[in-house]
Amino acid sequence: MTLLDFARGPAMQIAIIIFVVGIVWRLVGVWALRQKKDLSEARQKGAWVGGIKGLFVHAWPYKPFVPKVGAQYLVGYVIHLGLFIVLIFGTPHMLFFADIVGFTWWTLPGGVITAVAVVTTLALFIALVKRLVNPVQRMISNFDDYATWFVTTAPFVTGLMTTMNMWPHYETGLAIHLLSVWLLLIYFPFGKLMHSFWFVVSRYTTGSRFARRGGMA
Amino acid sequence: MSLKDIAVRLDSGPGPGSPETTGLAVALLREVADHLLTVSRGGDRQVVELTNLPLSDGDVQLLVEKLGRGEVEARISAAGPTEVFETAFPGVWWVKYLGEDDRVITQQLEIGTVPMILEAHQEDIQASARQFPSMFDELDPNQH
Amino acid sequence: MKEHDLTLGEELRRQGISRRSFMKFCAGVASSMAIPAAMVPAMADSLAQARRQSVIMMAYQECTGCLESLTRSFAPTVENLIFNFVSLDFQHTLQAAAGDQAIEAIETAMEENWGKYLLLVDGSIPLKDDGIYSVSHGQSHLDSLRELAEGAAAIVSIGTCASFGGVGAAKPNPTGAVGVDEIITDKPILNVPGCPPMPEVMTGVLTSFLAFGALPEVDRLKRPKAFFADTIHDRCYRRAFYDQGKFAYSFDDEGARKGWCLYPLGCKGPITHNACATLKFNQGVSWPIQSGHGCIGCSEPDFWDKEGFYKPLSAGQWGTAEGIAAAAAAGVALGAASAVMSRRNQDKISGGK
Amino acid sequence: MSDTTVTEIELDFESKRFSVRKPEERFDVQGDMTDDERVEKAMVNFAKDFGRVSATYMEACIHCGACAHACPFYEASGDPRHTPIWKLEPFKQAYKREAGPLAFMYKTLNLKPKVTVDELKEWQELLYDTCTMCGRCTLICPMSIDIATLVGMARHAMFHAGLVPHELYTVTAKAQKEGSPLGATPSVFEDRVEWMGDEHEVDMHIDEDQADVLVLMSSIEIQKYPESMAATAKILNHMGKSWTFRTDGYEATNFGMLSGNTGWQKDMSMKVISTAEKIGAKLVILPECGHAYQALRWQGANMYGKPLPFKVQHISEFLADAVDSGDLKLKTVNKSVAFHDPCQVSRRGGATPAPRKVLEALGVELKEAESGGNMNLCCGGGGGVITIHRADTLRYKIMANKFRQLDSTGAEMMVTSCSNCRQNFDESGEKLSWGKDMNSLLELVAENLVEDAKR
Question: What is the pTM of this model?
């Protein structure tokens, strides 16, 4: 069995299983905790509307905060959108998903994907440098933050190296790229990558809590 | 319904059979210019290999156009035919090695005084020098 | 045996073949092996000094497809120069002799050229049950190979079977078939994989063996780098479409008709090292991708067992829906268990208060 | 809980900030528990009220550090330790180790070490001195984490571990014992109500058996701004309401909540709730006090265990309703006004529009500060911070920012509706020579009643 066969076969299956088990475990583990009902009289009805609104209002900082954290948000968006574009609109990636969803979709030219990946990788490095240099971020960072950075950046770097044929052998490169993605999937449920789920839960929770009160969050 | 009823259209992209150029031709021309400079200063014969490159028809067309044709044209019959012509630039030769079945084995641009395939080689000259006198044996001695 | 004493140059002269013809042949080989054209004169000189080489070609667990392919370069072209020059002392399909006579021919060739002959092997060698699944003239091919290898100067494995086991070694590999280099470890071995291999590779390898007295430089799978350094994808004329994101998604769609990239249809070009894209088959007529079918990766080990020829390279094994459902169920169980533990802790705490 | 190591500190009547005097020697650790017991107590009391919501918040943080830039304390100090989420670090660690879904993993592999008593002691300053639970950090958080609520929960842990700052503990214990954190005992209250009645010639209703409206006061008002009582009485009388003060339930502040003792918080809330029930009140009016609104309006029912049988309104809400219904007619005040929103009433209470409605009725030109309203900068004195002398230096720095923000509006008059904010403005204003006064919205209304509008 070559490394590529391992990466495409058992490694992938193990990664997917850990990914699914971990995510469900963590979500259910929190969801199944007790929650006392808020007995105070609501100021207004339709807290859920506020919850839904909450999902979107925190997508960009409120005006007074833009000068302070706007750039940080921007870098965040580059990373997230880059990740999304490369993942969904890179042809090999689309074909990877097509295999399970059963249909194909429009993709972007390889050159565009490569450019997006390069920009995203740069943004990831900017984020890392900021984390290391900014006293606040450096203080509140722990192993998880750096591990998350690593498992997110690795697929970009290995993927770029594979498309640019920088490995001695393409198939080894492809295998390493796949393995780096499986590492991401395996780490996903146990670190802050889970924010891709928590952001919905947390924003909705705050949005709806403060919608019934009035005020702002 | 037979297979013939299925309409198949084959368009070709860049690559063999495509009228588009890939930029490779221009790069090759630059290489030739370099070699020409080397040879003009008394350097050795230089060869640019064309066969292994994914040249499109458009590329080949461009090369043919830009290089043009010069004074010499030759056809060599040795292990199948070989076609040679000098381009509009003296010292730049287009050499096409063909198999006995006329397929192209390899195509090269040679930069030098005479293409390798055209000149008579020392071994062959020696052999002919050895064999030449035997011609006299067959001739009538009276005529001497 | 006078013939054996002539150098190739002398032999050529005897046959009235001009140096010019020979130079042309060398230029052709150099081109196919990516040897710099500037080296052609030196290569020709050294080749002219070479003496007739004894070659023994053995067919083991094989289908004769490789031989079929090789004989395509035996056609009356410049390549036959080299094949005419080698002394093919044994090849049981091509020779007239059979049975005891054939065995005698091998033995004679071995004795006369001990330590000097080139051994060409075609087909895999079964190891299971002492190799009884492939036997000729009462001798297992395993024993035959060991015996012949001992006196060989070098071994060339022709085709994917001899190189990596090939179809014989495909799952479940009932005969325990392997390639030559898993049995013979103390001789220079060169693999010319492919199903079938490209005849030009054989020409190139023989020429280079004769000219330089050694096998050409090889990669980690013992394949001559001159032909196997690049992938099909690197040299593919459809590569531009891959870069542009233009693909064929089925064999009868717009993309397929326009000759776009076959990656989504399972083309293994990116992971397959071979020279098909530049040399093509059948005297340069065509090759699989030019005919509209993706590369199946036939010159790579275990290519039969790579999840099907039509599955895109980027596809993986998702596992079954049941497996994923079971994983989700396990997640629910773990999550619920941890929540129950937390709740119990809370009860204990507030009970204590 | 024993408090043998805590000594009572005298009240400080001279300062504009109404608190206890600066302790000569600090006793920031209460009780005589061992270190292990303290950690144990802290964890137990932190975990006790833990639910899905708090767990979600604990899980959601991505360590982006944005919250620092919304925090008045960090903005004033630039100290990374004042990053809001960092103030929860030991509790986040404890959550991951003890209560989260992956707790088992963290514990067996010891990935998150056990919290130590030294860490808790270190965090006392971060949880009490440098957080008013103003909730501005939630606004900037990309995950919308309600850090203020979590700080409240962390204070539960700290109180039970006996790790409350000396002054805050003193006033809290005083409140539990005497009914008021600042010496406004029932008899003091009664005296001062009568005094204000005489002084301002208003009818005071005290200890009526039945009334529709129960009016609460905070100790700060009783002791420092007694005119509030007169103003409230004047307005309610003017509107012809059936109302009363009650000596058995008048204190609006809830230091049980601020210090983190849920038991005491409940005691303090229940005193008011049962009084209101007893007199059949339909409405309880809260004075100009921010955290009182949080305690009764939003947490009262949860302390009570069922929905409250009466309505709870902040005085600004009551005034806004009265203005809206036409029960209250106001004279025009020809001034430009900047309004300082008390965090617990506006951003975290939801009553933001109420004072604006009242100011509109007063006909003033409202000059909104940059980042005002729901996004207002906290004055830095809430959440009990103003009582803690250790926090003074930083509080003045925050107030300097605050003054700049309000001054830049160019308004002639400063108004707020929280007496705790007000005393912070008064005291810091004196210290920093602000040269302006912070006015009470309630008093402004009372001064500008159109007397005969109703008759």
Answer: 0.80
